[in-house]
Amino acid sequence: MVRCPETAVLEDDLCAAADGIYGTGGPVVTGKDADVRCDRCGHGFVAQMADVIAETRKGRNVVNLKPKAHLSVVRTIAANHDSVAVIGENRKLVVFPIAEVPVMARGQGVMLQKYRDGGLSDATSFVFAEGLSWTMGGETGRVRTETDLGPWRVARSASGRMPPTGFPRNNRFD
Question: How far apart are CA 159 and CA 137, in angstroms?
């Protein structure tokens, strides 16, 4: 994952560090060909890596942000991933198919999750059949995998439900 600065201008160095982050809105794409970009307000889209790389020294504006919003999550999506999980600062989790996220060259994207107060905390992609995994606290590096995601699988832009027992309090998947 790459934490981006308050600006939405992506330079070649950031694109190289991102190494692809993305989802698909149709055909499956490999991880180095696309990435998913989300702002704090809960909007996001999939960007092809070829569309993100800039030819100029100043970089290129890829995400259109509202005032006081900033790009908060950029994640690589592997070729076999078919679902997206989004969690907000309000500790509500939403899981939906990656095909519901559009592929765009630039723009604001679509609403991934609705928030009354707060905003997007983290997002990730995964294979639904294998379940959603996250690291548990402590130095042991244990990983918990939740395979029964039925209660959290909803349509894109829903408000969501509280995450499974044992999900980190910092609302991060990694």
Answer: 26
CA dihedral of residues 167, 169, 172, 174 (deg, nearest 10): -60
- The tokens for 50 are 């070829």
pTM for the structure as a whole: 0.76
Query: What is the average pLDDT across 35-60?
Result: 82
Domain ranges of the chain: 9-152
Whether 148 contacts 129, CB under 8 Å = no
CB-based burial of residue 94 (10 Å sphere; 0-12 exposed, 13-18 middle, 19+ buried)?
buried
User: What is the CATH number that goes with domain 9-152?
Assistant: 2.120.10.90
Q: Buried b vs exposed e over 116-135: b needs ≥16 C-beta within 10 Å?
A: eeebbbbbbbbebeeebebe
What tokens appear for 117 in the block? Answer: 């107060």
Give the pLDDT score at 19.
33
